[in-house]
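Sequence, please.
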């Protein structure tokens, strides 16, 4: 009798027994199966294969009972074996439950190998119906994704971009960046600077991806564009040597879109920007150089950039490379160059020698 009991106990903790529990039917049988699988999963002394089978069983049963989620949360902990973490992430994804989503997003902030990270992102993506339309939840999910991306040595899993395309609205990205900046102001660490950089990049890329919609309905997008530009400027000021250069370059790239160029020029060098805060007044030559390039591209859409270039660059700049960037901006035949536009010179341009140009009938606007 003792031998039979011992054999029965051994079978109860075998992977095949865990898989048998997947077929449980009826409330009582499912409850018993959940209890058995959760008990095995939380038993650190059980065989690794059996614990993984228990996690998979909980996923197949698709119950978001507190005991099941608690057991899977333990299986997903950073000190567990990678195989168990992946099976626990998969199982939580199968639940598609509001109670499972916070466990998954919290895990994105833990140390992760590439494969486990991919499992987690897929599990989060399965919860999209749970988070769609809930901006608070979307912000928490995207913040966890930013943290995850900031801790990767290489590119995140492909699911990162697919999930981001659905969760990252401009409004959500603005809030994520604002929260990251608040955290950075409390603790200026490399990790927090990386989070700000990534949040800024994601925001500006999202804005750039919406140019067609913005062009088609500028009035509907006006408030969101202005909020995005203000958030980008705040990121520029918080980390001038890192994120700041990214902001200047990206806003310069957006100069071809009038609906974006105006607000961008305003936040960089508008009337409400103090002289000392203009990027062309930075003590860092690299920042002044990129700022000169960006403002030269933005000047057609706002007065501030032209004024900053005239007063800060053409009047006071001593670094030759900063001046050279204006001369090197490409122009089409018959057009004035960046310096001439800053000075307000108009008139017809006629080539004097190959590769050179002179101004005819120059005047000032």
């Amino acid at each position: 009798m003792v031998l039979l009991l011992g054999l029965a106990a051994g079978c109860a903790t075998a992977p095949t027994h865990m898989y048998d529990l997947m077929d449980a039917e009826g409330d009582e049988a499912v409850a018993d199966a959940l209890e058995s699988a959760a008990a095995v999963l939380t038993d650190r002394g059980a065989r690794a294969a059996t614990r993984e089978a228990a996690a998979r069983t909980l996923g197949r049963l698709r119950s978001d009972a507190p005991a099941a989620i608690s057991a899977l949360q333990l299986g997903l902990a950073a000190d567990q074996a990678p195989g168990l973490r992946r099976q626990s992430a998969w199982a939580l994804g199968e639940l598609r439950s509001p109670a499972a989503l916070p466990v998954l997003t919290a895990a994105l902030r833990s140390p992760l190998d590439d494969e486990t990270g991919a499992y987690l992102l897929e599990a989060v993506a399965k919860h999209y119906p749970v988070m769609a339309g809930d901006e608070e939840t979307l912000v928490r999910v995207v913040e966890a994704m930013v943290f995850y991306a900031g801790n990767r040595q290489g590119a995140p899993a492909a699911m990162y971009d697919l999930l981001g395309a659905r969760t990252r609205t401009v409004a959500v990205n603005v809030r994520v960046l604002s929260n990251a900046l608040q955290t950075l102001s409390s603790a200026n660490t490399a990790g927090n600077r990386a989070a700000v950089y990534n949040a800024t990049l994601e925001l500006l890329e999202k804005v750039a991806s919406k140019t067609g919609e913005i062009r088609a309905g500028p009035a509907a997008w006006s408030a969101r564009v202005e909020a995005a530009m203000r958030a980008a400027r705040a990121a520029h000021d918080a980390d001038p040597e890192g994120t700041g250069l990214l902001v200047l370059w990206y806003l310069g790239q957006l100069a071809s879109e009038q609906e974006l160029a105006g607000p961008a020029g305003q936040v960089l060098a508008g009337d409400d920007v103090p002289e000392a805060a203009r990027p062309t007044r930075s003590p860092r030559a690299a920042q002044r150089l990129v700022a000169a390039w960006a403002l030269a591209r933005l000047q057609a859409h706002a007065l501030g950039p032209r004024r900053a270039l005239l007063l800060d660059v053409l009047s006071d700049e001593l670094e030759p490379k900063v001046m050279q960037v204006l001369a090197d901006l490409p122009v089409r035949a018959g057009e004035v160059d960046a310096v001439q536009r800053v000075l307000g010179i108009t008139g017809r341009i006629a080539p004097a020698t190959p590769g050179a140009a002179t101004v005819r009938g120059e005047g000032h606007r």
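The chain has 21 helices and two strands.
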